[in-house]
Amino acid sequence: MRTIAVTGGSGKLGRYVIEELRRRDYQVVSLDHRIAEGIPCRQIRVDLNDLGQVAGALKGADAIVHLAAIPSPAGYPHHTIFANNVLASFNVLEAADLLGIRRVVMGSSTSCYGFAWASKPLSPAYLPVDESHPQLPQEGYGLSKIVGELTSDMFARRGGLEIANLRFSLIAAPGEYEGLAEEARHPERLRKILWSYIDIRDAASACTAALTARLQGGSVALNITGDEVLSERDTAALIAEHYPEVTDIRADMSGTAPLFANALAKQTLNWQPVYKWR
Question: Crossing angle of helices 78-99/140-159, nearest 10°?
Fold first, then answer.
């Protein structure tokens, strides 16, 4: 496995993934709807909603990291977000199947659980939230991520693809930590994301680890989150004040323990988040 195609290579996480892959001596090609300055690899302009373009651009790739998507419910109507994200994911997987590309890393999101963008009150059924927690989104973005994961399951069953769906929480770049430190002083601002984040460098290393990890069952979903809450308050206090109705606590929530469980990702990918907001 030498050539990796990264969709959304011009995006926030895509740039870090490309740099990480190049550090590991992979050949990389970026597939995006635009050609961007400063991307240190070959770039191909692609409309991911066109299967022919996707298949043509992926020819010669050994594996794919699919990160291209409308990244939140903000800025577009829900139906546009849903249609774009779902069709792009389907086309990437269909093209991979047609071309004989066996390994795909898919960018998913903890938004699939529904908390982050809920318009009606929604609390976790239990804590910490692991990959088996019910997925209850109230908008098109979180729903698109669920459908993307179901699509991955289908291709794994049908064609034997090996697919890692990485459920990223808020992705934080080094230059954003000053602003996030201010947010951490106001726990009510980050309540809906369960004070969860992942450093962008750790997110990129998870993507690269997923390219070679042994995947049980063909398609797997993994929480890619940090090892601490993004708050100046400790975890037990956050739960007591903001989610007192959640009484099913399934792990040690002392100190700054995270409210999304990431043990499965650590075990499956042989990966460990390193960077912390503090």
Answer: 20
List, for residues 50-68, the tens digit of each pLDDT value.
999 999 999 999 999 999 9
Q: How far apart are CA 227 and CA 174, in angstroms?
A: 17
pLDDT band at 26 (very low <50, low <70, confident <90, very high): very high
With beta carbons less than 8 A apart as the criterion, state whether 61 and 54 touch: no
Coil, strand or helix at 56: helix
The CA angle 43-225-75, to the nearest 5 degrees, is 55
CB distance 64 to 51 below 8 Å: no
Topology classification of domain 3-119+129-175+197-231+260-269: Rossmann fold (3.40.50)
Cα separation, 270 vs 253, whole angstroms: 23
Residue 200, CA distances (Å) to 12, 14, 49, 92, 276 in order? 9, 10, 27, 23, 11
pTM score of the predicted model:
0.97
C-alpha closest to that of 162 among 109, 227, 97: 97
- Which three-class secondary structure state does DSSP give residue 129? strand
Domain residue ranges in the chain: 3-119+129-175+197-231+260-269
Q: Is the predicted pLDDT of residue 72 greater than 80, yes or no?
A: yes
